[in-house]
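User: Hello! I'm new to structural biology and keep hearing that structure can be predicted from sequence alone. Could you demonstrate with LAGLIDADG endonuclease? Please show me the input and the output so I can see what each looks like.

Assistant: Of course. The first part below is the input, the amino acid sequence of LAGLIDADG endonuclease. The second part is the output, the predicted structure written as tokens.
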Amino acid sequence: MINNKRYYSTNIPSGSGAPVKSNNFNSYLAGLFEGDGHIWIQNPDASDKKKHNPRFCITFGLKNEPLAKKLLDILESGFIRYKTKDNACVLVVSPVVGLKKIVYLINGELRTPKIHQLYKLIDWLNKHHNTNIEKLPLKDGSLANDSWLSGFIDADGSFSVQHTKVENNAKKRKISCRLRIEQRMLDPVTGNSYLDVLTNIAKFLNCSLLTRIQKSTDNEYYTLTASSKISTEILVNYLDRYSLFSSKYLDYKDWREIVLLILENKHYTEKGLTKTDSARSTMNRNRTYFNWDHLNKLSA
């Protein structure tokens, strides 16, 4: 059953009927970082005499520059670096005040091998800036109870709507909605596996976890595709509560409309077919208009 209630605030009053949440932004930022981020720390044995602060970085496709700028405003530290050849931009935080804020926000919210990058940053702060920050362990609570997965989907997920005919020259059609998530099997820095977290995501979404090898690089990836009625209903209930904030939010809104038609068995009506083709024509690379009003709901 679809739950139409929506919660965006990071501090919901206890009398509102919703559980009090104080870390929605924290877990969202953690998921976003674990999908598309990294922390660079200068090698202490480097010959370069000039010492550089660590850099906390999250990479975005250039069309998601508004989200990068919004996060920069919230963090109040850092800058945006542009990689025009890659059609990308990078949120970079390097001032100590900003690095401390990042640690405060995501420490205890991470779920993947990238926690070791955070631990190295904590070691650096404790050593060079007289802090005594505790390294909190991997979070193992339910994915249903915070925004981590929405951040991870914003980084590594993609929504699609398929509308195909089946059998040669048959009139029968097939319409389906999918969320696909892909992540390397092994962390390139530590060699640790992403199996546990991807298995948890697959279990939460009631779908299978598969593997594939990228022929051009021989890199191995975990992949999962959520497309069944059960899976898509779980996703709608989750993402209506814990919003996406990249341009994928707009794809999700179109995707959601078709999911609801499928759940109500109205997708093969004339109206349903028209909506399906309309959604397909504006999603992902076909999107030319972007409304970023949903960023007004993002705050720490």
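User: So the tokens describe the shape?

Assistant: Right, they're a compact way of writing down the 3D structure. Reading them back into a model, for example: Residues 4-22 have pLDDT under 50 and may be disordered.
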